[in-house]
Amino acid sequence: MEDTVVDQLCKASAQGNLAAVKRLLQNGVDVNGLNTFNRTALQVVKTGHTALVLELLLAGAEPNVADPACDLTVLHDASRDGFAASVQLLLQHGADANMADRRGNLPLHLAAEEGHPEVVRLLMEHTENPQSRNKQGATALQLAGRRGRVDTVRYLLERLSPREWSWWSRFKEGQRLRQSLKKKKKSTKQDPAKLRKVWYNSVSKASKGESGGARAARRITPTRRTRGSGDPRARQRVFLKR
């Protein structure tokens, strides 16, 4: 099946082919036309190609068309990928920073989770409620904190309410508690190599003062497991040949 002109436009947009996009637009191809997969050229654009994004926007591309599969917009994509210049262009041409995807994530959620503080700064100016929660109940700050995005967390804490500060304090305290418990568990865990060394030293001390023949006659035999012993592992005992 031969590609339609809209398919060709979308393919050139996805590949970042600015010259082909300009040529197709000059020939009158609908910039908001849908390709075979029901997506526009701006929806599939290579978001890091700022000049191409601008070309489509100037031609009248609609920035708020949601993906039919997951409700993502091109602003979600650019925010998640951290392309601040493209995000700024989209916002200037009417992109809505308050549209949520199917999981309830705003573009701010995705930018914070991936750790793009410059994009977060741009989106904060256009987001009505920066403390909104997605369908999993997480805010942008919480997503950034769980992924260890230190710069993004620092920026958000400077601009959000004391309630978010309270969550961050509890989160950090929980982290410290988990780390201390992990260290304690590791320190109390018995090392088999150390146990063998202790046993060997005790045997060596017991053998002092014995004759060479007695030491040569010493042998180590494992005992059988017995019911009700309380220890499922076979113990070792030292026997002397008579």
Task: Write a structural description.
This protein has 2 domains: 1-62, Serine Threonine Protein Phosphatase 5, Tetratricopeptide repeat; 68-185, Ankyrin repeat-containing domain (Serine Threonine Protein Phosphatase 5, Tetratricopeptide repeat). The protein has 12 helices and 2 strands. Helix 3 (50-58) runs parallel beside helix 5 (84-92), helix 5 packs parallel to helix 7 (117-124) and helix 6 runs antiparallel to helix 7 (117-124). Mean pLDDT is 80; it is low at 215-242. The protein is mostly helical. It has helices at residues 5-15, 18-26, 50-58, 74-81, 84-92, 107-114, 117-124, 140-146, 150-159, 162-188, 192-206, 212-217; strands spanning 219-222, 236-239. It has a two-stranded antiparallel ribbon with strand order 1-2. Helix content is 52%, strand content 3%. The chain is elongated and about 90 Å long.
Query: How many DSSP H or I helices?
Result: 12
> Largest sheet at a glance?
2 strands, antiparallel
Helix content estimate: 40-55%
Overall morphology: elongated
Taking Cα atoms only, what radius of gyration do you get, to the nearest Å? 33 Å
Order of helices and strands: HHHHHHHHHHHHEE
- CATH homologous superfamily placement of the largest domain: Ankyrin repeat-containing domain
- Poorly predicted runs of 5 or more residues: 215-242
Distance between the ends: 94 Å
Strand line-up across the major sheet: 1-2
CATH architecture of the largest domain: Alpha Horseshoe
What structural category arises from helix and sheet content? mainly alpha
Strand content: under 5%
CATH fold-type name of the largest domain: Serine Threonine Protein Phosphatase 5, Tetratricopeptide repeat
Query: Can you give the mean pLDDT?
Result: 80
Reading off the top of the CATH hierarchy, the class of the largest domain is best stated as: Mainly Alpha
Number of strands: 2
